[in-house]
Amino acid sequence: MDVTSLTSLMVELFTAIRLVSGYPSPDVLPPIHRVSVAEMQQQICGGRSCRVRAFYHRDLGVYVDEALDIQNNAFDRSILLHELVHHLQKTTGKFEFMPNFCIRRNAEEFEAYEIQNRYLAEQGAPNRALPMGWSGKCTAETGDPGRERAAKLEVGRWAALPY
């Protein structure tokens, strides 16, 4: 997919997000990186095998599996849309008021899945994304995530979509 087509698709997806959620369209489009699953696994899971098809990083943009057919397949396209929702969540600060990291991450994930599934329904797609929530571990007392995964998520500001 060339840059012009990808830019056009992003504008289309941000419009869809706005229509189903009320989020404003962004002033600046985030960078989109089409990379291999192995490269994403290296960045998100320390090189271990994990189920990741896309992720968002506040400073670096959206990374999406290069094997996804985001131009022709509604479900694959919805994975990119899900990550674009994370971009809007971060740039608008919608969940920043949440009392701790784990509550915020779960709220962000559930909203992104809800918007993704509304998009899929409007596209007439037969499949839906299973809302997984964030899979980090939190202690009951503090709501803080476990050290290893949290360090990557908090320091890097990652939002990964497991499929």
Descriptive report:
By secondary structure, the chain is α+β, with helices and mostly antiparallel strands. Helix content is 48%, strand content 10%. It has five helices and four strands. Strands 1-3-2-4 form a four-stranded mixed beta sheet. The longest helix has 22 residues. The C terminus is likely disordered.
Overview in brief:
The protein is α+β, with helices and mostly antiparallel strands and 163 residues long. The chain has helices at 3-21, 37-45, 74-92, 101-122, 147-156, and strands spanning 32-35, 54-57, 61-65, 158-161.
Write out key terms for the chains shown:
163 residues; alpha+beta; 5 helices; 4 strands; 10% strand; disordered C terminus
Report the mean per-residue pLDDT as an integer. 84
Principal-axis shape: globular
Q: How many DSSP helices? A: 5
Task: Give the neighbour order of strands across the main sheet.
Answer: 1-3-2-4
The radius of gyration computed from the alpha-carbon positions, rounded to a whole number of angstroms, is: 15 Å
Q: What proportion of the residues is helical, as a percent range?
A: 40-55%
Class per helix and strand makeup: alpha+beta
